[in-house]
Design brief:
Elements (H helix, E strand, L loop, with lengths): L1 E2 L7 E3 L1 H5 L10 H16 L2 E5 L5 H15 L3 H4 L12 E3 L5 E2 L2 E2 L3 E6 L8 H5 L14 H26 L15 E10 L7 E7 L5 E6 L6 E4 L5 E3 L7 E5 L1 H6 L9 E5 L5 E11 L3 E2 L3 H6 L12 E2 H12 L8
Parallel strand pairs: 1-12, 2-3
Antiparallel strand pairs: 3-13, 4-7, 5-6, 7-8, 8-15, 9-14, 10-13, 10-15, 11-12, 11-14, 16-17
Helix pairs in contact: 2-6, 3-6
């Protein structure tokens, strides 16, 4: 069972960081120093935190969720017009039970989108994910809304990572440049049906495999749970207007194991439908994920870094997708 909200995740107002985010000397600002201290503590202690003061209006965040609810309320046949298939680059609508976590079916449906790239850009590895994102025509203007939202999330992720880069003792720009100069991204709009029984697994326990995740969840239902260092599951109670932010496997690797990606899951206990909009900021698709030199120098003796093996991000992602959606081939 999860602990109550007294064990709540840290809440970090990042507005001082955003004010100075384009200033190369931002680390000298007292407001930035305080945000960076809080980010470091959160990344070391639990790997999850709420972000406020991020500059994206609460009304816009709510509109994204409301329009997503409208899509999931459509008849099944209508949703299938943008059905996810391997031929569509694993982009589009996935029906209930299609997603697997740890080999077990998750009780949710979703729209999956990825950064689009030109044919042939990433050779054989990228071929599996080529193609445009599939957005529904209904609700109208949903694609335009999500395109705007994705741009805002890209900028916000970059700026939070500048703070995390400072927290690790680097310059603000360690997570830019050759490994993250052309960052890949993933968008998952997830719908969890209401349930009439307790503890239905909407999404099994997992870590995220990118750099940074931004979660925009319904304000009136608690379902996300995070496993803390003590091994307890903490319920992540929604705070209106905030993002829940967490670090992923790639940040663990790049930081040389200093920051740990955290297990989390979704447990449905509500009779009402729940929407969660997840944005996942990644490294370059064709980048080799390995510890950055500056963090190898700063933290040479960290034993956890020995767990990090060299892997090309795009290969890692495609393997994950093909494993997760193995039953696509059988039920296409």
């Amino acid at each position: 069972m999860a602990t109550d909200s007294n064990s709540r995740l840290p809440i970090i107002d990042i507005s001082p960081l955003l004010v100075k985010c384009d200033d190369p000397n931002m680390k000298e600002d007292t407001g930035v120093v305080e945000v960076v201290r809080k980010l470091d503590r959160a990344c070391r202690d639990v790997g999850f935190f709420y972000v406020t003061g991020h500059g994206i209006s609460e009304s816009f965040m709510k509109k994204v969720k409301e329009m997503s609810h409208q899509f999931f309320e459509l008849p099944y046949a209508e949703k299938l017009k943008i059905k996810i298939t391997p031929a569509a680059g694993y982009r589009g609508y996935q029906r209930m039970g299609l997603n697997l976590t740890g080999g077990k079916q998750d009780f949710h449906e979703a729209i999956d989108g990825y950064k689009e790239f030109e044919q042939g850009k990433y050779g054989e590895t990228g071929k599996a994910m080529e193609g445009p994102n599939q957005w529904p025509e209904n609700p109208q203007e949903y694609k335009e809304l999500m395109d705007k939202y994705i741009k805002l999330c890209i900028d916000l992720s970059r700026n939070i990572l500048r703070g995390i880069s400072l927290a690790l003792g680097g310059s603000p720009y360690e997570f830019e440049g050759k490994l993250v100069g052309d960052p890949f991204w993933i968008m998952r709009i997830i719908g969890y049906p209401g349930v009439n029984q307790e503890n239905v697994i909407g999404c099994g326990a997992h870590t995220d495999y990118g750099l940074l995740s931004l979660i925009n969840q319904d304000d009136d239902k608690t379902a996300l749970q995070v496993k803390n260092l003590a091994g307890d599951w903490i319920s992540v109670t929604p705070i209106p207007g905030s993002f829940v932010c967490n670090i992923g496997d790639m940040l663990k690797v790049l930081s040389n194991g200093i920051y740990e990606s955290t297990l989390h899951r979704v447990i449905n206990n509500s009779p009402r439908y729940r929407v969660c909009v997840g944005f996942f900021y990644e490294i370059n698709f064709d980048a080799m994920a390995e510890p950055l030199d500056i963090f190898k120098e700063k933290y040479p003796g960290d034993e956890r870094s020995q767990l990090s093996k060299r892997v090309v991000y795009g290969e890692h992602l495609v393997n994950k997708l093909q494993t997760t959606f193995a039953n696509l081939m059988e039920h296409n």
